[in-house]
Amino acid sequence: MTSDQGPIVQSALLRTELVRLRKEKKLTQEQVARQLEWSPSKLIRVEGGKNAVTRTDLQALLRIYEVTSEGRQERLQSLARGAREPAWWNVYKDELDPRFLSYVGYAAGAAYIRQFHGAVIPGLIQTPEYAEVLSTGKASETGRVLAAKLRIQRQQELARREHPPRQHYIVDEAVIRRHVGIMIDPAIMPNQLNHIADAADGNDLLTVRIIPFSAGAHMGLEGPFSLLEFDGDLDDILYLEGRSGASLMITGEDDRILEYRDTFELLLEQALPGDESIELLRKTAEDLMA
Asked: Is residue 264 within 8 Å of residue 171, measured between CB atoms?
């Protein structure tokens, strides 16, 4: 298990495995806590991600669960060490929505990112200039700068991973036609579109598809959403993006995750093929510069 998934994902992977080990032994939280002379609330906090798992506590749990393989023990200890590492996104926590930062943490360790947006270019493929224009509505100057910086740092951190995630984006044609930044610099939006086209052209890990106006109404008009998949035994995550305070992250076996997986596939059926999407991006950039 690589350590570049970030502390949130490594913590979730560790907790998932510890819960599974306990259930395989048919032990309740109270029984395990009694054997370790812990309070039940301590194990509840550990399994719920409220408490970090120390090396000593993890060794104690693995003895109870009779995990004797040195390789498995080291893998779990490696996850525990990674989970205790400081998150790079913590520098933004005083200014930005903590629920969004939690999603950022999961996305930082995802193996596959799928996203639909009908209003703006997805953050992970924005240029710095485009990101800064979108952040002008923040309540404070600090918040504006940090919001734009976060979008770009997310891209950089994903690129540094040993195994970067696959990224698949669908956007409505309205997104690429809107001349964002025209009052500041008319080249911002054309440069943004060419940036996407250049990045996606020939890159097997990045796919961008455009739903043309000719497709008419589609299910994406209900709002933007993201789906995250992970290497390891971790459930998918659905993130429904809304205005500040209205976003929602959904985990576990919630039926809405399957519903939005199906929605993404239906949107793909209405989107232009990859090569035609890239061609439209470049043609629109030319039109905006005319």
From this structure: no
Q: What is the predicted pLDDT for the residue at 2?
A: 47
Domain 7-84 has CATH 1.10.260: yes
Tell me how far apart the alpha carbons of residues 286 and 4 are, in angstroms, rounded to a whole number.
39
Q: Which pTM was predicted? A: 0.91
Asked if residue 213 lies in contact with residue 271, where contact means CB atoms within 8 angstroms, the answer is no
pLDDT tens-digit readout, 211-239: 999 999 999 999 999 999 999 889 999 99
The Cα–Cα gap between 79 and 53 comes to 10
Q: How far is CA 175 from CA 114, 118, 130, 162, 171, in A?
A: 17, 6, 12, 32, 7
**In angstroms, how far is CA 271 from the centroid of its own chain?**
22
- Which has the closest alpha carbon to 119: 31, 221, 235? 221
pLDDT at 4 over 50: yes
CB 188 within 8 A of CB 133: yes
Please state whether beta strands 248-250 and 225-229 pair in parallel, antiparallel, or not at all (unpaired).
unpaired
Choices 3.30.870, 3.40.50, 3.30.930, 2.30.30: CATH for 90-289? 3.30.870
Q: Give per-residue pLDDT as tens, 141-183.
A: 677 788 889 999 999 999 999 999 999 999 999 999 999 999 9
CA 227 to mean position of chain CA atoms: 8
